[in-house]
Amino acid sequence: MIPTRVWAISDVHIDYQENFEQLVSFAGAGHRQDTLILAGDATDRLDRLEALFQALTAGFRQVLFVPGNHELWVRRSGEPDSLAKLEAIHELCRTTGVRTEPVLVGEYHKVWLVPLLSWYDDKDQPEHSLFLDKDYAEDRTDDLWGDFIHARWPGDLQQPLAQWFAQANEPHLRRAFEHPVISFSHFLPRQDLIFQKSVVESMRLARHFDPLPEFNFSRVAGSRRIEEQLRRLGSRLHIYGHQHRNRLRTIDGVTYLSHCMGYPKERQRGHVPAEASQPLCVWRDDTGFTL
Ligand SMILES: [Fe+2]
Ligand SMILES: [Fe+2]
Predict the structure, then answer these.
(1) Which residues surround ligand 1, an ion (CB under 5 A)?
(2) Which positions of the chain have pLDDT values less than 70?
């Protein structure tokens, strides 16, 4: 008998029909005992998200989801703001059977799967931001980043967005996790994960080879609040997405995995490896962690 397995993927961007079909076809290929972690950026359209959830819950025993920034865009929805959209997404998860709270899986090697809601801290939150200054270029990120156009937040929100999202995780963090933990977020938990090389070397190279000097991804990449929460959980493996630059790295006892499906053109150009068109197995009940 095939053991229960846990698979992970993010940034499936199903408005590309090719991505939708690849994921649905994977779901239908022998995963009735398995669990899928979907770490955000599927689509901003609720009707498309519902179709995806229905197909995935038909193929997998369990599906766990955290929204990414694209889900919280309100440009094509009737929601008044992005927090109302978040509530609509959670309601959709409830009605389709998609899980958004910690789940224990396995019978032999047990593991907790813990979703962490998140947002990024911009440079006005230096204590938590992943921001790195590009002193060689004008910063036009405000004009270039889709969230600043398509997401909308309640005017009376008194705290930084990333803090609001981190606080929403607190009820889940207070419980005891008596087995190993796999946590997952859409956004990056650490500045050093932005780069393939060291931060210093990467910034030195960027002065000469930056393809988009006026866009500063580090302003919208993630938050150290995610790192703080996953460390409190004692997470062994943290899965994240968002950047569409896949990584597998172990730092101070935690393995960080980014396995983004990305856009078809990113896979064609090699920015995202071709094998990312399918979820990756990260854990199985007979042998435990696979990475
Ligand atoms: Fe994405
Ligand atoms: Fe994203």
Answers:
(1) 11, 41
(2) none
